[in-house]
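Entry:
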Amino acid sequence: MKVAYLMGSLNRGGAETLVLDICKNINEHNFEIILIHRKNGQLKEEFVQSGIELHQIHPKHIFDIAYFIKLRNIIIDNNIQIVHAHQVIDAWLAYLATLFLSKKVLLSFHGHGINGNFTANLLRKWVLTKTALNIFVSSSQKNYYEKKYKIIPKSIVLPNGIDLKKLHVQHKQSIKAELGLSDTALLIGTVGNFTSGRDHFTLCKFLYLLKQTNIEFNFLFIGAESKTEPSIYNKCFAYCQENGLGNNVFFLGTRADVPDILSQLDVFTYSTEHDTFGIAVVEAMLMGIPVFVNDWEVMLEITNEGKYAIIYKSKDEHDLLGKFNHFVDNIDTYRKVAKKNTLILKDKYSIGRHIFNLKNIYNSLLKD
C-alpha cells in the first residue's frame, strides 16, 4: 500500500505536527507514504530528516492546469493508491487531479472552518460529498459538521496521535535558569498561538486574580502572535503590562523545545474558543502534568468528562482561580492522579495507535 499525503505549508501547527509524527514512525507499520506540499516552512528540515520522499508543487490558483498535471504525474509515477489531504483546498486539488484514475481521496478535518468566507464554505460543502472518506479528530467536531452541512456521506472519528518518544526529554536547559526565575515559585504555562481559536485573555484575567493571592508563580505563554489577528496578542500583552504582571508573565513566542519546557511545568492551563482536539492539552496530560482546561465540548471529550484534567467554566477566571486554589492546597494528590492517568492516555493517544487505525482505514477503503 502506498499513500500520498497532501499538505499546505510545512509550518509548525497541529496538522503539520501530526503528519510529521506519522512520517517519523511510519516504517514500523508496513506501508509507504510520500508527502506533497505547496509551501515550505519551519518543519521542512524535520520532514527531510524523517526520510519521507518530499515533492513541492504550488498552484497559482485553484484551477491551475499545470499543477493538476504535475500532481497527477506524481501520483501515477509513484503508484499511489490513496491520496490523504489535510486541508479542503488540497482535497479539491486531489479530486480533480485523480479524475478517472480510480484513486481514493481522503480528507482529515483539523478545524471547524468557522472563519471561512462564502467561497471557502461552498468549497468545503462540495468536497464533503466527493471524498471517499472524511476523517474528524473528535466526535464533537464530527457532530458540528453534521449539523452545519446536514449530509456527510462517509465519515469516521480518528483522534490525533502523539509521538511519545518526543515527550521523554532530558532538560537541555532549565527554562527557569534561562529566564532567571525563582526555583520556589510555581511554574505554570500554556501552549498555543494567539488566534481567535483560543481564549488566552481569560488566562490573563486569571493571572491577575492569582497575583492578588499569596501564591508565588511564574507563567509562560508559548505561541506566536498571529500575523492576521495581531490584536489578540496585543490585548493580552497590554493587559499583563498594565496590571503589574510583567515580572510574572512571559511571552516566549514560537519554541522548538516545547516538550522540554512542558516537562518542567508544575501546572498546564488552557482556554479555548473552538478547538477541535487540543494536541497541547493531550501532550501535557501524557507527561503527567496537572492540567486545567475549560469546559468546551471537545475538552470534556479528550479528558473523559474531566477524569484526566481539572475542568473550569469557560470564560470564568474566578472559577479557574477557585479550582486552582484547591489544587495548591492538595498539590501532591493532584500530581499522583496526573501521573497515574498517563498509563491510560498513552494507549489511547499514542502515534502508534493512530497509525495502526489509519492502516486499517486505508485497507478497508481499498477493499471497497
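The domain at 2-163+350-367 is CATH 3.40.50.2000 (Rossmann fold).
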